[in-house]
Amino acid sequence: MRLALIALGSRGDVQPYIALGRGLKDAGHSVRLVTHQNYARLVSAHGLEFWPVSGDVQAVAESPEMRALLEKGDFLAINARTAKEAERAALNWAAEGLAGCRDRDLLCAGIGGLFVGLALAEKLDVPLVQAYVVPFTPTAAFPGALFPHTVARFGGRVNRWTHHATRQLLWQGFRAADARARREVLGLPPAPFLGPHYDGRRLRRAPTLYGFSPAVLPRPADWDAGVHVTGYWFLDPDAEWAPPPAVVEFLERGEPPVCIGFGSMSQRRPEETTDLILRALALAKRRALLLSGWDGLRAASLPDHVLAVDALPHAWLFPRVAAVVHHGGAGTTAAGLRAGVPSIVIPFFGDQPFWGQRVADLGVGPAPIPRARLTAERLAQAIQQAVSNQAMRQRAAELGAAIRAEDGVARAVAVVQDFARRQ
Q1: 326 - beta bridge partners?
Q2: 240 lies in a domain?
Q3: What are the φ and ψ backbone dihedral angles of 14, each rounded to 5 degrees?
Q4: Does residue 412 sit in the same domain as residue 399?
Q5: Does residue 293 contact residue 273 with C-beta atoms inside 8 Å?
Q6: 302-312, pLDDT tens digit by residue?
Q7: Do 219 and 254 share a domain, yes or no?
Q8: Cα–Cα distance between 246 and 253 in angstroms, integer?
Q9: Considering the chain, what percentage of its residues have pLDDT values greater than 90?
Q10: Whole-number pLDDT of residue 62
């Protein structure tokens, strides 16, 4: 079988699909990953065929306007800004994606590549497997990932409505770009007003995959049989990867440190953020590793009990620390939970508050602290709770063991192969 996985967004958005692609390739299939040019080396390093499309999400995220919006957590403004960028890129994505998918038997896409993928599947008349790492199928069990958890008190009907509203927030921002790409590149009529994901004729042909653990978010009873919660799709470092000696020495020098990093969430004032973190560590009396990511956390000089590094594989690092402080992205949350250590989530926007609240509800981390409300005192208190609450630490360890016992990639591959056999 020849597959194309369409993955657009940040590295955290793309990485699970590389893991899924590796599993499909290991099962004997031809797998092509359609993604941004800046991920070429990452995709190729894992043995997958790479097909480039335009755009650099990191450059957009690091623009002054986007940095300001991320710090405020203004999702509507962020979505509007993203929609503008998408409209500029949509024609290229359609043309480049069409060239990359023309010889494929099956397409697969998550939220980032969903609307492009649906248009390409319609043009090429091939099935599209929806593959998400965030809940996107309407359910009465819990609110949509972009809505506050307090909405749940209004009941199942409102919960279900929030999922439809989430879909519309994403679709309506992209609808004009999609219509233009369909008309000018693909020769297709516009999608329905509510979006191609509401046209069930094509989507009923293929399963929907969810790359998260049922131990973290159980499968709702009102999802139909074609929706599968497989477990996480982890991409681990190659066996020959070795950690930097300075990091090993730092870890061995004293008690396990706290790991702090906000992934792709750019900061307008990284020095001030670093100062806040250092003050919190002093109050909590803890050692720490700072992962800079895209946010550029930095200080002119750091105390001996703090080490700053650009990036390290979460699968190697997180089990070696006392707790993980992060932004609540789906991938980082998954890595923290698998490691079996408490997570302290500092959500910026989007689905990050959803995962932060899920961590708290599971009892494996303190209540999330929105980025706009982060202070040194609040962070210090959360760190102290995470490292000293033994019941929390035990629950985190047990959840980590349950996640490590799963093989989400293998389960997802089995579902896709079963579908292919029935075609």
Answers
A1: 345
A2: no
A3: -90, -35
A4: no
A5: no
A6: 899 999 988 89
A7: no
A8: 11
A9: 72
A10: 56
The Cα–Cα gap between 329 and 336 comes to 11
Q: Look up the CATH number of the domain holding residue 214.
A: 3.40.50.2000
> Are 98 and 200 contained in the same domain?
yes
Using alpha carbons, select from 217, 261, 244, 243 the residue that is nearest to residue 361: 217
Given a contact cutoff of 8 angstroms between Cβ atoms, the answer to whether 171 and 246 are in contact is no
One-letter identity of residue 149:
H
List the domain range (segments joined by +) for residue 296: 245-404
User: Are 138 and 259 part of one and the same domain?
Assistant: no
Same-domain pairing of 202 and 283:
no
Domain shared by 252 and 191, yes or no: no
Instruction: Tell me whether residue 200 is in a domain.
Output: yes
Instruction: Assess if residue 94 is contained within a domain.
Output: yes
Closest C-alpha among 317, 278, 271, 279 to residue 297 = 271
| Span 14-26, pLDDT tens digits | 999 999 999 999 9
372-403 CB burial, b ≥16 within 10 A, e <16: eebebebbbbbbbbbbebeebbebbeebbebb
Q: Are residues 164 and 19 in the same domain?
A: yes
What pLDDT, in 10s, does the model give residues 106-137? 999 999 899 999 999 999 999 999 999 999 99
In whole angstroms, what is the distance from residue 334 CA to residue 133 CA? 10
Domain count, the chain: 2
* Distance separating alpha carbons of residues 377 and 281, to the nearest angstrom: 10
CA neighbor of 157 nearest in space, from 134, 170, 138: 138
Q: Which two tokens stand for residue 77?
A: 């403004």
Task: Quote the CA–CA distance of 218 and 221 in Å, as a whole number.
Answer: 9
